[in-house]
Specification:
extended, 44% helix, mainly alpha
Amino acid sequence: MRNHLPVHSERAPVEEWVKWRNAYVDIEIAEYKNYWMDRYTAENRHLLTYEGLTDDLIGSEVAKGLNEFLGQVEGVDPIEQDSVPCVWKAVVKNQPPAEQAAQIARLQAAALNKPQSEQGPPYSPPEQQQPALRRRLDPGHHDSQRKGPAVPRPYTPQQLDSMMNMLLEIGERFKMEDV
């Protein structure tokens, strides 16, 4: 048990995170470049940002690019590109299509081992994960289950500069490639 945290899904105290950040941020930046950018060729890597993937305007287009990239792998059957925005909205924005509400309610009932007659009202996303519901079967699950204080864990201006310099270096290095 490290930092007196019983499980990996519990946030470390901010003071411990800051110690880790200060000790490892430069190593993590170097490892990102070495592992992800040098290990794979341009054809075998697809860069995207969390901000892009979750953006209301471009998120579904970013997801289409990811779908297309993953479809290049043998044995992976991507979904139809036309379906990506709908799936993106359901998964990333937690807004499933209205016509799927009954199916979601049936899945929740099955996950809770309720008989069909006890299904109850149509699906509405729970505020929290229901205790008897396994996470992967909870269609309403869309937030972190991490425990502990959800407080900002900022980087120093120098650390942000290091990250930006690394990204600029990668951009310059690979400007002739479609990374």
